[in-house]
Every structure is written in structure tokens, then in C-alpha cells.
Design a protein that fits this description.
By secondary structure, this protein is α/β, with parallel strands linked by helices. It has helices spanning about 20-30, 70-80, 110-120, 140-145, 155-175, 175-180; strands spanning about 1-5, 40, 45-50, 55-60, 85-90, 100-105, 130.
Length: about 190
């Protein structure tokens, strides 16, 4: 079993913001696999599907970004999922728009959602798919809570498609295969 969690903030005011690229990716995966992410458990919306031969829960924590670990800790503990079977999708301001980076483990890199998950799970050994949202010109908060510029939308849609492919690759063939196939690709 795998847990695939897209990070973001709940509420209409945060839809289509840079910080919600994880939620957006979960929505694309849900569309592809014809599953509704509308069940509520452990402070998250989730839906169940299969990717390859694996049962997969698609999860959108509703705790706001900075407390994402609260929800994911409960899912990991309840379903007794090995930490390496938790895949987290998040935004990354250190990557250019449209780039993705797959990692098998690592630090939070200043991302508060990842910090919360690492702290509450007491481990950084979970795979993550980071989607580049560009560096802020001025204020970090306004940048990540801002919407994508129109001219960046094609690159972001392509990045979400590749992030979905990376998640599928991790589940079907492992993190090293996903890193080889998807790191360094994109705009």
C-alpha cells in the first residue's frame, strides 16, 4: 500500500496558488484514475485507487501547509504503511517553473509542510516529488500564496503531468528509476 499526499492549503482562496501544486497534482491523479478525493479522515480528504498492482490512497491534508504532518502521521500509523511508501508532492521555490525533482529522502529545505512531516514522523526517509514554482522576487509568503502567471501555466501543466508520471514510476519501479527518468527534465 502507498500513501500519495499532495501538500497545500484548504479553501477557495488558495486554489491554483503555487503552494497548492501538490493538491493540483492529486486532483490530476484522481481524474486519471477516476477516483473522488472526498472522504474525510485524519484531517484530510482522501480517495482510494490502484496504481499498477498497489492499493494507493490519494491524500490532501486539510490542516494547512504548516501542519501537514498531523494528518499524514495518523494515516501512516493507522494503515501501518512503511515510511518509504509515503510519497509527498510539494512546491519548491528553489526550482525553476516547470522543473521537477524526485528525492528518496532529505531535509525539508525550508519548506514548512515538509518540516512538519519530518518532525512528526521522526524521519526524512520518505520519497518526495518537488515541483518548481520559481524563486520569489520579493516576499516569500506572497509568492507561494500567489497564483501562477498566465505565461507559466503551460509549463506548470506539463510539470504536473510529469509529477504524476514520477509518482507512478516510484510505485511501479522504485525511487531510483523515477529519479533517473524525471530529474533534470522539463522547462
Amino acid at each position: 500500500m502507498y500513501l500519495v499526499a499532495g501538500l497545500g492549503n484548504p479553501g477557495r482562496e488558495y486554489e491554483m496558488t503555487r503552494h497548492n501544486i501538490g493538491f493540483i497534482t492529486i486532483d490530476y491523479l484522481a481524474d486519471k484514475y477516476n477516483v473522488k478525493v472526498n472522504k474525510l479522515k485524519y484531517k484530510a480528504l482522501y480517495g482510494e485507487t490502484r496504481i499498477g498492482s498497489e492499493k494507493v490512497l490519494l491524500i490532501k491534508p486539510q490542516t494547512y501547509m504548516n501542519n501537514s504532518g498531523e494528518s499524514l502521521m495518523d494515516f501512516v500509523n493507522f494503515f501501518k504503511v512503511p515510511i518509504e511508501n509515503l510519497i509527498v508532492i510539494s512546491d519548491d521555490v528553489s526550482l525553476d517553473y516547470g522543473r521537477i525533482r524526485v528525492r528518496g529522502r532529505g531535509s525539508a529545505g525550508g519548506h514548512n509542510g515538509l518540516k512538519s512531516i519530518i518532525y512528526l514522523l521522526n524521519s526524512d526517509s520518505f520519497p518526495r516529488v518537488k515541483i518548481g514554482v520559481g524563486a520569489p522576487e520579493h516576499d516569500m509568503v506572497n509568492h507561494v500564496l500567489g497564483r501562477f502567471p498566465k505565461e507559466k501555466m503551460p509549463a506548470m501543466e506539463d510539470a504536473v503531468e510529469r509529477a504524476m508520471g514520477a509518482v507512478e514510476e516510484i510505485i511501479n519501479k522504485g525511487v531510483p528509476s523515477a529519479m533517473n527518468k524525471f530529474n533534470g527534465t522539463g522547462k
